[in-house]
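Format notes (please read before filing issues)

Several people have asked whether sequences and structure tokens are stored in separate files. They are not. Every record keeps both together, in the order shown below: the sequence lines, then the token lines. Line labels are part of the format and must not be stripped during preprocessing.
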Amino acid sequence: SFTAEIFYRRDDADRAGCLFGNGHSAGYEGIAAVKVLADGSVELMLTGDNIGVGGNSSDIITAAAPDDTGWHHLAFTYDGTNVKTYIDYNLANTTAPTYYNGRIFSGYAYFQLGWSNAGAPDYYHLGDIDELRFSDTVLAPTEFLGAAVPEPATIALMTIGGVFLARRRKR
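Then the structure lines:
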């Protein structure tokens, strides 16, 4: 069992791209790719055997998807039976994948951040990625990474404090 989560935003709301995955010219197993599709939905490409040499994969595509260029949180959990996908802390999909061995990455594949050659064509992510985390247990949404965006009141107080500090230093 595990949890994988990441913050991302896209530069272009109409372009698909891969957030992370693994691959190798000889094949790959585990999480082959995590992609944001052109309509904003998320695709998890999970493999149960060596897909690069004729194996099988389970592609899980969410229906609920933010189609914009703002920051979003994506998480998915695997409990040994079901994969649950969360977008912005809300459950978007629960699926029991047909072909999946429960591995995160295979020992002979390399980790790819911001692109993946899993599937054709290669998908480069155009945008920003922040705080990718893997946990070796299934986390609840309340345990996911929290967004660290300052509140407007905090920014206003910091600005006022900075002005007073600058005035005090001039004296």
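For reference, the curators noted about this record: The chain has a mean pLDDT of 78. The CA atoms of residues 152 and 158 lie 10 Å apart.
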